[in-house]
Structure formats: structure tokens, C-alpha cells
Amino acid sequence: MKIEKNSFVTIDYLIRLGEDETFPPDGQTEQISFAMDCGVMPQGLEEALIGMAKDEKKVIHLEPETAYGEIDQELIMEVPRSDFGAERDNLRPGMVFETESDEGHPIHFIVQEVKPDIVVIDFNHPLAGRKMDIAFTVRGVREATPEDLKPCTCSACAEKPPHQH
Q1: pTM exceeds 0.85
Q2: What are the beta bridge partners of residue 61?
Q3: Using one digit for the tens of pLDDT, what is the confidence trace for 65-103?
Q4: CA 45, CA 50: separation in Å to the nearest integer?
Q5: For residues 7 and 36, is the Cβ–Cβ distance under 8 A?
Q6: Which end of the chain is more exposed for a tag (fewer CB within 10 A), N or C?
Q7: Going from the N-terminus, what domains does the chain have, and what CATH number goes with each?
């Protein structure tokens, strides 16, 4: 079966961000499963998957626009350090926190900078604004079920790359 827009796909992937940086950070491929055309994966990856079959391999280059998007400055903000309660004294750049959107969905942000009274936080995807090469192998493909197409509400799906369900 070839991958189409209504497929459920499993791939092994490794993202290269320049010479020495990979995702996953250990440089080992990771497996992920997802329904196509649901906005879960980068547009450029989904486009590259169309027409592929099990055991086919490919390496693609993505610009930010077709990967995880450009950095949106409106998603970077300053908040009072006191908003972090007991953790305010242990904050450091790179820490990831979870909060809820106005609709009650979990969303993540990264601490960018810690000042005496202010913390700069970033709601952009960690790979936003980055060019990347993605090496992947199709491990499975089938028609997506109605259950596969339901939007996920778990905290890990608030970020990309999403996890396997």
C-alpha cells in the first residue's frame, strides 16, 4: 500500500540540524506513528511521504516554512518571576514547563532567559526557525481509522515532533 492523505503511517526518523546537532539528541533513529493530513507532522515531511511504501527510505531538506515554521516573536514574552512560585529560585534557560491554553489544552513553553524579576518564556516549537534534514524509513502504512483521526489532547501532542500513540 502506498501512502496517501488518508493513511496512518509509522516511520523511523532522525532530524539533522547542521553538522553536530540531531533530534533525537542521542543521534539514534526514533519511531513515530501518525495520521497523515491532520497537521501533526511538518508539511514538508508529509508531502515527501505521499506515494511511498513500506521499507522505502528518503532524506529530505526542509526550510523553516515547511518544517516547524518561523519564530513568532509574539510567542516570546516576559512574565514576572513570581509567577513560578516555589520554582522561581531554581529557574534556568532551557527548562520546559506545561500550562493550559484558554481552551484548557496543555501547552508547553521554554524558559529563554532569567532576569532578577522577569523571566523570558517562548511558546514557539523548539525547532521553529531551523533548517533541517530528515532521514526516514517507512515502517508501516495502512488506512487511517476514525479513531486515528480524532485530535489528541495529551500534553505531548502540544509539541512537535509528536509522540507515538
Answers
A1: no
A2: 133
A3: 999 999 999 999 999 999 999 888 899 999 999 998 888
A4: 9
A5: yes
A6: N
A7: 7-69+127-158 (3.10.50.40), 73-122 (2.40.10.330)
